[in-house]
Amino acid sequence: MLDRVVCSFIKRNKVEIMSRFSQNTRTAYCRQPVQHVLLDIGYPMTPLHIKTIITALQNVLTLACSLRGGIRIPGFGVSVINKTFELIYWTDVLRGNFSKVLPALNSVESYAAVNEKLSEQEFQDCLNLGILSVIEEFKTRHNGMPGGSTGNFMPLLQITLITRKTGLPILEFLEKLLHNIEKTQLKRIQVAELTSYGENSFQLLQKPSRMVQNSLAFIELVNLTDSEDKMQDFFKIWLCDCDSDQEHLRLLFPGKSKTKIDFTVKCDIRESIINTVSLPYGHRYQIQTDFFSFQFGGHSVGKNSSKDLPIFELEVIARVSLSGLCESFVFGFPHRLYPTQCWRLDWEEILYNQQCFATICQYLTENEIYLLTRIKAQHRSDQVFGFYILVAGDKSLLLKSVASAEITLPSQDAAHSGQISEELLIKMSNNLTDLPLIQDFNPQLFISGLYTALNHNLIHVSSLGAESGLRSFHPAFDNSEQEDGKHKRTTKKISQQQSSLQIDLTPSSK
Predict the structure, then answer these.
(1) CATH code for 34-239?
(2) Were 392 and a residue from 29, 347, 365, 378 both cysteine, which residue would form a disulfide, CB within 3.0 to 4.6 Å?
(3) Looking at the chain, which residues constitute the CATH 3.40.50.410 domain(s)?
(4) In which region does residue 79 sit, left (phi positive, over 0), alpha (psi from -120 to 50) or beta (all else)?
């Protein structure tokens, strides 16, 4: 009897484990570590360096506290070391506490006057005290919170030491130090070696970042230029999703039979820019042609009963080479611009305006350039200026949003396995060659099934509204998992209609 129970338990847990790895959903921003910055203010750090670090750090934390959606930086703390260790701000939940974090960051600059030159042993003693204190403080506060790991803190801590001293001796010291430290709640210790722009630039290029694995923790040496933009990029990595429990996207490549998948490539998604819809003032980064877009972007115009849209004004500020703009910086919904037909204008003005428009299109086409524009403030309270490019088209201009410095996220080096096998290359080439070749993309040939889905959605809303007074419904906000028989039959009918609308993408003849 006992054997049966044990076998049943093992079988049940095996099924649960297998289902966990074959799931089609994932959690976002659930593995974000708590960040603690340990700032070495001793020689050769200067007050200017400290001010630059604090400004960059403040900008990134401001961004993190303003983003809607997942919590990207769950907790934050800051401390300084020189001759002594000083805890400036206890590691605490970040969102909702920015009013406490800001004065703590500003107070760090007052410690710049303590800039003392220590011996190697004195610095190591102080660093030892700082690392142990930060880890112990995190454990105490984390374990003391109700719910443990289910509380506001994640059970992982990342310590970032920013110093102007040579990083390699510090790295070797920390490797020895970690042998005697409990590392179950420690994700990584980063040593950011700060170097002035132009200072030992050749040696800096020859010295890559070094990462050393030590049991369950990592020690990483990072070379960091002391410019504000480089520091912001360094801190912005905190905003990227650290979840590695599940892949984010799968590329499915069909075989020759078209009914089976030949092979699958699994990928992780990394944002190039922050979704402006998740930010206050996000409406300033996209030209809005619908009133609802202003509300969704966090604009206060929602209180205006007239629902009037502003007449946008874009200031032309520069030219951009056709090959000088990376596609990862272009986002949002494109709009086509045509010369106005406003009947309120004089006929002569309309004709002259059309000639100017046509001249701009011809100039951009002949010189292979874009025009970079900036949105002009509509009111005195407007402080955000989105940027846009104008692309010459067929008797029109294409308007696209482009990223600004604040919303761009740093690119990260992709992991690779080194040498590519010849066998795999041949397999990939054969598979991709069998795919149909489209010379000119025509969206009319690609049906997504939206009409049939919207049709069913409106009928579903009408039937529910008659019974329960439901007025609006959006599939993205529907959390119900129950479906009646009528819904299943309609879904089956929709899928049959969609399959009949699919175009025949047969491989091109060779």
Answers:
(1) 3.40.50.410
(2) 365
(3) 34-239
(4) beta
